[in-house]
Design a protein that fits this description.
The complex is a heterodimer of chains A (351) and B (79). Chain A contains 16 helices and no strands. With 351 residues, chain A is mainly α. The longest helix of chain A has 36 residues. The N and C termini of chain A lie far apart (50 Å). Chain B has one domain: Glutaredoxin (3-Layer(aba) Sandwich), CATH 3.40.30. A four-stranded mixed β-sheet of chain B has the order 2-1-3-4. In chain B, β1, α1 and β2 form a beta-alpha-beta unit. In chain B, α1 crosses α3. Chain B starts with a strand and ends with a helix. The chains are: A mainly alpha (351), B alpha+beta (79). At the A-B interface, α6 and α10 of A face α1, α2, β4 and α3 of B.
């Protein structure tokens, strides 16, 4: 065993230790109660107008760090592990082969194995489509992948609680498959066959030496670090924005437009379709809105459509397929978001 | 020599471009480094996972940031 292997095993043991200690502190079960405490503190702060704005922001940041640092840590580790260990080529092949329901299931559930950064999803979508995977599975993948990956699930668990985390997974996969399938049926035989592209998969592997498990663990932590550098600043921005929302937007306004009811759910679903939300940022954002009176249904609708779609992503897809296609799946996704929000509101009426 | 870096401008693609430029200046080679950000061009090149690196029309890597030593060998192989 070389030094690096020992180091990697040490890192893993340390992580497990932290998790166990954290669990003893009752972290996973404590989300709900601390949320309630927060609400009263925020209310008190709001009543006293003398409290300066920056205190809201500082308060929000500390509060978020308190609740999300472990989940974030785990999320980054999970993202790095997937990058290093996931059999991505196999998943891509599986998505492209087979008929009937199988490719949809792979596309809906295989998202987390492939990527988590929304900017890398469009080339994958294009590749899948042009390789002949079919429009349906490609759309399913495009829509389900951003919401259904371990990092997003862990952070949702930490900041929004287990009900949101579980519902999000179910809703993302279901909506992805439904919308993908319907889009495929609508455009069946109406689109020209994509001209096939030659894809290089055989690379010069002069330097791909046989890597031991220890070496791969080191690679994994390097990938994790990459994700930290990429995502952490964005999340920080999201948290600051959430603090600003809490400080400046009067709760009455949020309750009116994003509170409970069918219209707020439709509105928030539509906002999610167009607004660009970087990976993972939607979670602190939604928590900020929830604390100021956003309804649970509206929150779930935004969590579904927000990361899956955005105006830049729609425009990007327009370069690969006819603009009619994204127009159709965006509309379908908006409807799905509304329905999902409504169902979630029925089961979980209060945060 | 023509080197193409494919990527929409995410963190990893910028990193790859930096690595390529560092290798070029270290080897003291002038090459035409092109950053391809157009999504349809990326897809047409057959790249499914960004970033991608193509040297003189030969796809060398996709979906990862190759190490500087690897890029050195590839560039040396093209001279």
């Amino acid at each position: 065993m070389d030094k690096k292997t020992v180091l990697a095993v040490g890192i893993l043991l340390l992580i497990f230790g932290i998790i166990i200690v954290y669990e003893w502190g009752g972290a996973w079960t404590g989300v709900k109660t601390t949320m309630a405490e927060n609400k009263t503190i925020t209310a008190q702060l709001l009543q006293d107008n003398k409290i300066p704005v920056h205190e809201f922001i500082v308060f929000t940041i500390i509060d978020y760090i308190k609740h999300s640092w472990l989940c974030l840590l785990l999320a980054f580790i999970a993202a790095g592990a997937l990058q290093e260990f996931a059999p991505r080529d196999k998943v891509i092949k599986l998505m492209g082969s087979g008929r009937g329901f199988a490719p949809y299931a792979v596309a809906g559930c295989g998202g987390p194995l492939l990527s988590m950064c929304s900017c890398s999803i469009i080339p994958l979508f294009g590749g899948l489509y042009k390789r002949g995977a079919g429009l349906g599975p490609a759309v399913t993948f495009l829509l389900a992948a951003p919401a259904f990956n371990p990092a997003a699930i862990l952070l949702t668990l930490g900041l929004l609680g287990w009900k949101f985390a579980i519902a999000r997974v179910i809703v993302a996969i279901t909506a992805g498959i439904l919308v993908g399938y319907t889009t495929d049926k609508i455009f069946k035989n109406r689109l020209p066959e994509p001209e096939p592209v030659h894809i290089d998969t055989e690379f010069d592997s002069t330097l791909q030496e046989d890597q031991g498990f220890g070496k791969r663990l080191i690679n994994m932590s390097l990938y994790s670090w990459e994700f930290v550098k990429m995502v952490l600043p964005l999340i920080f921005l999201g948290v600051i924005f959430a603090g600003l929302v809490k400080a400046f937007l009067p709760p009455s306004l949020i309750i009116k437009y994003l509170g409970n009811g069918i219209l707020p759910i439709m509105l928030s679903s539509a906002i999610g379709v167009f607004m660009y939300t970087p990976t993972l940022v939607e979670i602190p954002l939604v928590r900020g809105f929830l604390e100021s009176g956003m309804g649970t249904g509206a929150a779930m609708a935004f969590l579904l459509t927000g990361p899956a779609l955005s105006l830049p992503s729609i425009l990007g897809v327009c370069k690969i397929v006819k603009p009619r296609v994204p127009a159709v799946y965006a509309t379908l996704m908006w409807i799905c978001g509304t329905i999902a929000g409504f169902i979630f509101w029925f089961f979980v009426p209060r945060f | 020599m023509k080197i193409e870096v494919f990527g929409k401008g995410c963190h990893r693609c910028i990193e790859l471009e930096k690595t390529v430029k560092a290798v070029l200046s270290e080897l003291n080679i002038t090459a035409d480094v092109e950053k391809v950000t157009d999504i349809s061009k990326i897809v047409d090149a057959g790249i499914m996972q960004t970033p991608g690196l193509r040297i003189n029309g030969k796809m060398r890597s996709t979906g990862r940031i190759p190490k500087a030593e690897e890029i050195k060998i590839w560039i040396a192989g093209e001279r």
